[in-house]
Structures are given as C-alpha cells and as structure tokens.
Amino acid sequence: MTGLRSTRARRMLTFAVLAAVLGLTGSAVTVSRPEVRLAATSADAGHVPAAMTGPAAGRTSSSAARLRPAELTDQTDPAGASVAGLQDRLGRVPRDWTSWAALGLAYVEQARLRGDPTSYPRADGAFARSLALRADNDPALAGRAALAAARHDFPAALRDADHALAANPYNATAHGIRFDALVELGRYPEAWQAAQAAVDLRPDVGSLVRAAYAEELRGQTDEAASLLRRVLADATSPADITFASFHLGELARQRGDLDGAAVAYATGLAHDPSSVQLLVGRARLAAARGQTTAALADYGVAATRSPQPWIVAEYGELLEASGRPDEARRQYDLVRTTAALFRAQGVEVDVDLALFESDHGDPAAALAALTPAPGAAPHRAGVFVDDARGWALHRLGRDREALASANAALALGLHRALFSYHRGEIRAALGQPAGAITDLRSALAMDPHFSPRHSPRARTLLASLEAARR
C-alpha cells in the first residue's frame, strides 16, 4: 500500500522503543537453541553502493503500529501503569537515577502505544534528571537514544547509543538502538555488526527481532522467519507473542502466503485482541483476499484507536480503491493533521510522508524532503529512501535519475513488491519494455495484492506491455 512509511521504517521505530523498554524490564527469551549467527551475504563484503547512502525515507504499507487512544485503562495500557508506578517510586526516592531513566523509557513507550507525542518532552525531562543525578549512566543514555529514534533523529540516536556503549560496552539495548540508527542511515555493514553484538550479549526479544530484520533486509526471508518463530516459541508474555506474530504474518503476506499470514495474525490476536498492529495486518489480509468490507471495518477500528498517519493513509487508499473518494480525502486530510501534531512535538515526519506526497500531493515537496541541504549530512538514507526518491523523480518526469535510485533500492536484496513495481513503471516510461515486464512480473509474483492503489495498475501495465510485444 502506498502511504507514509514502509514496513521497515515503522518496524525500526517500534524496535527502537519496544526493545529499549524490554531491555530495562528484562523481558528475555530463554535460549535453548544454538547460537544465532547472522548469515553472511555479498552485501557485507564490499561497500554499499553510493546511491544507498543518500537521503531520507519511507513508505507505509506493512508494519508496526504505535498508537492507542489516550483513554486506555491500565489493563490495556501497561506503559501507563509503568509510568504511574515509577512516579510513585520517585515521589518517595527522588534521587533514584535508575528509576528516572526507566520513567523516561516508559514515557517513550506510552507515546508509542497511544500515539501521543506530547509524552516525548516528559521523556526528555526524565532522562535529563537521571543524567543530572548520575552523569553518563548508560540506561539514561540508551533511553535518550530510543527517544531520538522515536523522533526520527537518527544521527542523534546513534550518538547517544555510542555514548551509552562508551559507558557500558555490555549494554545490549544500546547495541540494538545503534542497529536501528545505522539501518536508517543506510550504513548496513555496520548495522549487521551491531545486531550481532546485541544477540551475542543478550538473545532476547529485542535482539532477535533485530537479527530477523537484518536477515529480511538482505533478502534472507526464511532465516528471518526462523528467528521470529524462535521468539514466538520461547515467548511468555502477550506483548512478545503479539509482536512476533505480527511480523511473522507480514513476512508471510509479503510473500503471497495468505494462509500463513492468517495463522500468524490469529495467533497474535488470541493473546491481544486489542492490538492495532494485528488489526491492520488482518485488514491487509482481508483486502488481499478481496474481502473489502471486512478490511475496511478493521481499518476503521484501527484508525479510530490509533490515528497514526500511516494507518490513516492505508485506510484512505482502500476507501479510494473501493470507489469512496470523498471518505478517502477525509482520511488524507487527517494524515496531514496528525503529521502536523508530530512535527509540533519535534518528530521529523516530512521524509516519512514522501511516498504519500508523491502519490497524493506534491512530488516536488517529496523530493525536497528526501534531499539534504548542500553540504549537510543526510538524516536518513538507505534502500527505502532510494525507492521513495526514485518514485518522486518519476512522478516529476525525471525518469533517468529515477532509474538510478530504483536500482539502488533493489541492490541490497530486500524483497519488496513495491520496489519492483516502481522500477517497472520507471522502465516503462523510459521505453524499456523488457525490463519493465520483468519487474512487473516480479512484483505481482512476490505479492499480487501489495497495494490497492498500485496492484491494479501493475496488472494493467503488464498486460499492455506484453500485448505490445506479441
């Protein structure tokens, strides 16, 4: 689906926050299997193509949800309960620097769950108090790195993670957030090393899901699924089970295995029927099966509970594809409203809106968001940025430049139907029918229902190109 962020991008934000919280609360997976070693790939040996180190951003279409309504009770809002407990503790022991660090992380998690970025300044204050009481304490530095990642300031996230590791080289949470930041900055070989370091130090939920994501990024989807099944088999908490179930479902769905996705989503929902993530997953599955009414119902509930821009954008696209343009426009307006709320709280979302703007707004603005100022280091880079830049360039009619970015997006090995579709459209526009046919066939073979907006266009364009060659 077209939208704001990719599966990867949202997933990384969730990892940065969730795993940081798990790191302090000790939600570890019991390890009774052989050690995890990330598979070597050709991408590790040489340098990453220069096009992979360019600017920012993302797309919606498949992953981690972060919002819940502000009125949730403590029973369904563990972060709220954690905040209350820590506040009580600090009322009695105000100089407890470890509790201040934990409170900061609880605020970050609360923002993730509720979609309320107003918790971020409170998190900032809690980390500052912790560091004032104990300078250079690694829990607060790692927490501040998680906060920077949540605000999409990945250079700052990397700096704070490195500071945490300077204070304590054995902080697995900091290694994990370092992985998140390096991925978002397109520094993949270093990211693989960070993921491995986190697994070596503590093979828990946070490190294993990062290892799974590292494998997925390099096209090793079987290895990624195996690691997620390991998490699921060993997990004991509903949060861990739903987290692993969602991402297993996404891996299956993106490979066209709808039955496997259905089993994974159902497993997660059995443990947490209120999970917005899993409701979105089930909505995507229903849409792929042509069960539009059911898909819209799940999207409606998810968008009401958690009006995150990426959820709302996906909902709008399905409404538009269902012949309900007025309702879709209302959702697109809401995307921009919620994005403004996040900006007001210091969250960088312009890059995240790039694909959305390319499809529903202003491709020139999308390209500007993806391009750093002259002489400035990019705040985001990597294959999702390359894909978004390529699509914005295509929408602006700059297809030769677009093709270079589309090639870079596919160079790492990540399997994404949307990437192949985008390059297929670009090649068709350049008068390269053979390459376009190859890409379009690949996209539809990989995931025939990758987007309610673009999948029909891919089928139509493919049929036209094939007919012209007969």
- Rg over CA atoms, rounded to whole Å, is 21 Å
Helix content: 55-70%
Shape: globular
Number of DSSP strands? 0
Q: How far is the first residue's CA from the last residue's CA?
A: 31 Å
How much of the residues is beta strand, in percent? under 5%
Uncertain runs with pLDDT below 50, 5 residues or more?
2-34, 40-77
- The average pLDDT is 83
- Put simply, the count of helices is 24
Order of helices and strands: HHHHHHHHHHHHHHHHHHHHHHHH
Protein traits:
470 residues; globular
Please outline the helices and strands:
Layout: H1 7-25, H2 42-45, H3 78-92, H4 97-114, H5 119-133, H6 138-150, H7 154-167, H8 172-184, H9 188-201, H10 205-217, H11 221-234, H12 238-254, H13 258-271, H14 276-288, H15 292-305, H16 309-321, H17 325-344, H18 354-360, H19 363-369, H20 383-395, H21 399-410, H22 417-429, H23 433-446, H24 454-469
Helix pairs in contact: 1-4, 1-6, 1-8, 1-10, 3-4, 4-5, 4-6, 5-6, 6-7, 6-8, 7-8, 8-9, 9-10, 10-11, 11-12, 12-13, 12-14, 13-14, 14-15, 15-16, 16-17, 18-19, 18-20, 19-20, 20-21, 20-22, 21-22, 22-23, 22-24, 23-24
Describe the model:
It is a single chain. The protein has 470 residues and is mainly alpha-helical. It has 24 helices and no strands. The protein has helices at 7-25, 42-45, 78-92, 97-114, 119-133, 138-150, 154-167, 172-184, 188-201, 205-217, 221-234, 238-254, 258-271, 276-288, 292-305, 309-321, 325-344, 354-360, 363-369, 383-395, 399-410, 417-429, 433-446, 454-469. Helix 12 (238-254) packs parallel to helix 14 (276-288) and helix 18 packs antiparallel against helix 19. The protein is globular, with a radius of gyration of 21 Å. Residues 2-34 and 40-77 have low confidence and may be disordered.
